[in-house]
Design a protein that fits this description.
Elements: H1 3-19, E1 23-37, E2 42-55, E3 60-75, E4 80-91, E5 94-108, E6 113-124, E7 131-143, E8 153-164, E9 169-182, E10 185-196, E11 204-216
Parallel strand pairs: 1-11
Antiparallel strand pairs: 1-2, 2-3, 3-4, 4-5, 5-6, 6-7, 7-8, 8-9, 9-10, 10-11
């Protein structure tokens, strides 16, 4: 069986397991990603993302938090790169600082692309001990028209991610539909499903509707 078929089957089984849980939180995750090439091998990536929670009991949507991050991406090979970044999270009266390191591998096939990301994160907050987390994500992307993605064409992107904070596991499944508006702009909309407290509890579900606008200024 081809790898991409096995990948779709795994994602489907994970989603079935996740939706069998009881607790479900939902909301909106709008995000803007602004990137700029510094040199042939380095890139600056800056993001801002807000979170709005849907309260089904009171039938309203409330602001929850905002994340602002800056990343320096360094290309180390034809299909490999390292990211070094900092994220500031503002949530009510809380301020959370996060530093992170990513190792990225992209496998470009004839008609689709596979992306692997290995990550290590550190969390710092006043009054709390530092926390650490590891992450692994595999992503699949394919143009819906033809073998390669052209301007004014749609594409699909599906990612499966595993996050471990040395006490418990979180699983994420993110199917997106993307549109390459111009050479420097693209838009992705889709779902971000998260199953947390996977090991020590019965599981907590989060289902977010995500919209991301990618802008390149080069």
């Amino acid at each position: 069986m081809p790898f991409k078929n096995r990948y779709f089957i795994i994602c489907f089984l994970v989603s079935l397991s996740a939706f069998s849980q009881n607790t479900l939180n939902s909301g909106l995750l709008p995000k803007i990603v602004l990137s700029a090439d510094i040199s042939d091998k380095t890139k600056s990536i800056n993001t801002i993302e807000s979170r709005f929670v849907i309260d089904e009991e009171y039938e309203n949507i409330s602001y929850n938090l905002v994340d602002m991050s800056s990343i320096l991406s360094i290309k180390t090979g034809l299909n490999q790169s390292f990211n070094f970044g900092y994220l500031l999270r503002l949530r009510n009266s809380e301020t959370i600082h996060r530093t992170f390191q990513h190792y990225n591998i992209i496998q470009q096939q004839l008609t689709y692309k596979l992306a692997h990301r290995f990550a290590f994160e550190q969390f710092y907050q006043e009054g709390f001990s530092p926390e650490f987390r590891t992450r692994y994500r595999i992503g699949f992307q394919k143009a819906l028209n033809g073998e390669i993605l052209d301007v004014k064409e749609f594409y699909v992107k599906i990612a499966n991610e595993y996050l471990y904070d040395f006490t418990d596991l979180e699983i994420r499944l993110t199917p997106y539909l993307g549109y390459q508006m111009t050479r420097k702009n693209k838009l992705e909309v889709g779902l971000d499903y998260r199953l947390s407290n996977f090991i020590n509890d019965c599981g907590e579900n989060d289902l977010w509707f995500r919209a991301t606008w990618y802008i390149s200024i080069n």
